[in-house]
Write a structure and sequence with these properties.
Chains: A alpha/beta (391), B alpha/beta (269), C alpha/beta (207)
Oligomer: heterotrimer
Shape of chain B: globular
CATH superfamily of chain A: HUPs
CATH class of chain A: Alpha Beta
Low-confidence stretches of chain A: 1-7
Largest interface: B-C, 33 and 34 residues
Number of helices of chain A: 16
Order of helices and strands of chain B: EEEHEHHEHEHHEEEHEHEHEHEEHH
Number of strands of chain A: 7
CATH topology of chain A: Rossmann fold
Low-confidence stretches of chain B: none
Distance between the termini of chain A: 30 Å
Helix content of chain B: 25-40%
Helix content of chain A: 40-55%
Radius of gyration of chain B: 18 Å
Order of helices and strands of chain A: EEHHEHEHEHHEHHEHHHHHHHH
Strand order of the largest sheet of chain B: 1-4-5-6-7-10-11-12
Largest sheet of chain A: 5 strands, parallel
Strand order of the largest sheet of chain A: 5-4-3-6-7
């Protein structure tokens, strides 16, 4: 029960959770209990029990938060900022924000990889909900250089720069326009605890700068960044908070999709985060091929846990290749073209063995005692910052 | 129902996509390759890419960039910027570009128009004419990113390049560009009346009303930058383009419908 | 393998780019061996008629094409100028065309002052498909393609015209005679309509 072979690593015995589809492939930290239920299911159960609210509590909590935001925003042009990517979570969030009477300034981080679908979805959100948009476009040369630095460093979480920038942009924008609330699309319904081996902390600016210093050639000038101290300042002194509003609403993915399709003309592009061509390529090709990680397992597992998919359906999904052959070819060409890499150079990078993030300076490292002590001291604050890691 | 081409204009400066107001005040817009891909996926009619600093820098057209852009563009692509020789034109066209746009060269080495046209066909040569109004209210053709005046009047120059074999003219009212004050319909009318080749209106478009006005004044096609690249009161960078349905109902069908004007003015009264 | 003939004229890479995007392998060549080994041929081209014929002659392609198309019956798709070169002659020039197609190229002329339209015809035109056949299989109308030309293809036998477009009056957009296709528009610049057309040519035509 729960023991299946994996395509990625050959005919070795693998253990797979009996409840979701997480397994020990490329994940040294996963544990199984006597019923072959994995530690991520347990972690999720625990989170649900202690942090996710019942429908009633959620509803009243939602009212309270919305009330607070509206009160604080009285007399101002906007009462909050809201990050959108064109994806289903942030689109539904925008829709609900309107329903709840909030007046957000919508922001978007443009890292040069937007698909046409994403851009169209963003346009529809702004037009149909009557929201104003702020975009920050990072200088492509600078961002490409950072991408290349991460690729050359051979670390796993190549999405850190984008995810960091989105969080930073939210906070910086809120601070700039004088509001205290950054609404994000993070939620339990579709996001799961991810294996630590698969991701790194998005807000670990030390790590980002270290990788960039080692392998990058251009200075970071236009990338929105938020260091630990600055972030703490905004959160503690300016009292700016991230609000994952979807956790206080009944969020069911299929129903949400139907609503936004109908009301906003939202278009689906299949696959989580496929609004960015790089993300599609990273999750569909780089992660499985270089790191042996199939992130679909995590996404499908969270759908199983929230009753939106059965384990059988998820396994059927997983048996399909993550990438249609022609699309992979086209995407690969496009990515390499944008990054200015030859096939040989890219294959060389793909063959390099994995390097752990903490082999570079990082907030996490023990010898940064100062940071560590500060971290321990303000754990509640850092937990909020860690939000990024759940993506 | 007659259709008219609606053409996004992308400005690049050393491989960076930018946008200007009246040819100055550069704002960074993003990576041209991704932007072209988005316009291509939106299935626009045609795309114009202008390298605005190539001539002033005395630089050769960036073939590597043009190759990358052309490979993401499955609609007609016109390139302009720093083209001085037939051989450059040949190399650029070969990469998958349909038309060469000449601006400085049309002024400084007019025989090039004929040379490119004879070799590759009239339809592959477009002359870009930048125009400003003088203090006394007359029009003059400008050069060097519209900083210096020439002695040419736009209608004269348009006739001249037509006789030299240009296939089309892109007519830009330089001081309207990026300022959302509408096209200069008087200018369009003067130039379109003087030539038989297609005239593409450019500079200042705010939306469909301006497209209709341009075509009624004689333009064969309309081009715009600002409205397809910025969105909203904060000028957020966002690539947009009207749907076919919007183009048909808000533009094509309205051109010959004079009653439509009356209806619209009644609405706003 | 489809050979896209490189005789030095036109936006050749646009054609190979589109084939690549739809997953069809091509080679861009003027080499005898590759052309002989190819399953199908594409003759692209942008430019003047005489110059086109001269270039074909310079690259020693005229006899080779005659051999491949007329004797060995290899499917060939002519695009824009390439399509025109397949005909007997053109009003644009003095050279003789390849003569594979029973057609000739005529300049756009319009009746009366009112009817004057700018020449070249440049822009998108909808197609009236007379015979969907293989080339337009699985394609939902309305179909639009990009045209850029001053001369149009006049077929001797109008029943060989698979699709018409209009500019002042109707003119042939696609002529098919045997395994020879003349397409006046630019499929490589007509996004998904072009992709569907080229895919049909590559995968279904002449099979």
């Amino acid at each position: 029960m729960g023991v299946e072979q994996t395509k990625l690593n050959g005919p070795l015995e693998r253990h797979r959770c009996s409840r979701c589809v997480m397994d020990d492939d490329a994940d040294p930290a996963i544990r199984f209990d006597a019923n072959q239920v994995c530690s991520y299911c347990r972690e999720w159960d625990d989170l649900k029990a202690n942090h996710v609210l019942t429908a009633d509590r959620a509803s009243s909590e939602c009212k309270r938060i919305v009330g607070e935001i509206r009160e604080a925003g009285r007399g101002k042009e906007y009462d909050c900022v809201l990050g959108i990517s064109g994806g289903v979570d942030s689109t539904y969030l925008a829709y609900m924000a309107k329903e709840l009477g909030l007046r957000p300034l919508v922001f978007h981080f443009d890292n040069g990889w937007n698909s046409e679908l994403a851009v169209k979805n963003i346009e529809n959100i702004c037009r149909r909900l009557g929201f104003h948009l702020h975009t920050h476009v990072v200088e492509w040369d600078e961002f490409r250089d950072l991408h290349l630095a991460y690729l050359k460093a051979s670390v796993i979480d190549i999405e850190v720069p984008t995810d960091h920038a989105i969080n930073a942009l939210g906070m910086l924008t809120a601070a700039r326009i004088g509001v205290r609330f950054v609404l994000t699309g993070c939620n339990f319904a579709t996001e799961s605890p991810l294996p630590k081996a698969w991701v790194w902390e998005k807000m670990d600016l030390l790590n980002l700068r270290a990788i960039q210093r080692r392998y990058g050639t251009k200075r970071l000038k236009t990338l929105p960044m938020l260091g630990f101290l600055k972030g703490s300042y905004y959160q503690v002194v300016k009292r700016i908070r991230f609000i994952d509003l979807l956790n206080f609403l009944p969020y069911q993915k299929d129903r949400a999709k139907t609503t936004i399709e109908r009301v906003l003309g939202w278009r689906d592009y299949g696959g989580k985060h496929y609004e960015s061509i790089f993300t599609r390529f990273y999750q569909g090709y780089i992660l499985p091929t270089k790191f042996g990680v199939d992130k679909r397992k995590a996404h499908l597992s969270s759908l199983i846990r929230t009753g939106q998919m059965t384990r059988q359906e998820a396994l059927a999904e997983l048996s399909k290749p993550p990438y249609a052959a022609q699309l992979l070819k086209t995407d690969r060409e496009f990515v390499l073209k944008k990054l200015g890499l030859t096939d040989e150079r890219f294959d060389e990078i793909m063959r390099k063995p994995r390097v752990e993030h903490d082999q570079f300076p990082s907030y996490r490292k023990a010898h940064y005692r100062y940071h560590k002590q500060l971290f321990d001291l303000i754990r509640p604050v850092t937990r909020l910052l860690k939000r990024g890691a759940a993506r | 129902m007659k259709e008219y081409r609606v053409i996004p204009v992308l400005l690049v400066d050393q491989g960076r996509l930018i946008k200007t107001k009246a040819f100055s005040n550069e704002v960074y817009v993003g990576d041209p390759i991704n932007t072209i891909k988005i316009f291509n996926d939106k299935e626009v009619d045609e795309i114009v890419v202008l390298d605005v600093t190539a001539s002033t820098r005395g630089a050769e057209p960036d073939l590597a960039m043009i190759d990358a852009l052309a490979s993401e563009c499955f609609v007609p692509l016109a390139y302009g910027g720093g083209v001085n020789t037939v051989d450059q034109a040949r190399r650029i066209l070969r990469l998958g570009v349909e038309k060469i746009i000449l601006n400085t060269s049309a002024l400084d080495r007019p025989p090039l128009i004929r040379q490119i046209g004879d070799r590759f066909g009239k339809q592959s040569v477009v002359v870009s004419i930048d125009v400003k109004k003088t203090f006394l209210g007359g029009y003059r053709v400008m050069r060097d990113r519209a900083r210096r005046k020439t002695e040419w009047h736009p209608e004269q120059f348009a006739k001249e390049v037509e006789s030299l074999g240009a296939g089309e003219v892109i007519l830009t009212r330089a001081d309207h560009e990026g300022t959302l004050q509408g096209y200069d319909v008087e200018l369009i009318h003067r130039v379109a009346s003087a030539v038989h080749i297609p005239v593409i209106a450019h500079g200042g478009a705010r939306g469909m009303d301006d497209f209709v006005a341009a075509v009624r004044s004689g333009a064969s096609a309309v081009a715009a930058g600002h409205i397809f690249v910025f969105h909203g009161p904060h000028n957020a960078v966002l690539i947009t383009f009207p749907s076919r349905n919007e183009l048909e109902t808000e533009f094509f069908e309205r051109v010959s419908d004079r009653k439509d004007d009356l209806r619209r003015s009644n609405l706003s009264a | 393998m489809i050979a896209v003939i490189d005789y030095g004229l036109g936006n050749l890479k646009a054609v190979t780019n589109m084939f690549r995007r739809i997953g069809i392998e091509t080679c861009l060549t003027a080499e005898r061996e590759q052309i002989e080994q190819a399953d199908k041929l594409v003759l692209p081209g942008v430019g003047a008629f005489d110059h086109g014929i001269q270039q074909l002659r310079t690259h020693k392609l005229i006899d080779l094409l005659r051999q491949e198309v007329l004797e060995r019956n290899k499917p060939i798709l002519g695009i824009c100028l390439g399509a025109q070169l397949l005909t007997r002659k053109s009003e644009e020039g003095t050279e003789e065309g390849l003569g594979f197609l029973r057609a000739e190229c005529v300049k756009f002329r319009f009746e009366g002052e009112k009817g004057q339209l700018p020449v070249p015809h440049m822009g998108w035109s909808p197609l009236s498909v007379m015979n969907p056949g293989v080339l337009f299989a699985n394609m939902e109308p309305p179909l639009r393609y990009y045209f850029a030309h001053s001369y149009w293809l006049k077929a001797e036998d109008e029943t060989t015209v698979e699709a018409f477009a209009e500019y002042g009056a109707a003119f042939p957009a696609v002529i098919v005679q045997g395994r020879i296709i003349a397409a006046q528009f630019h499929p490589e610049k007509s996004h998904r309509y072009g992709m569907a057309f080229l895919k049909n040519f590559a995968e279904r035509f002449g099979s």
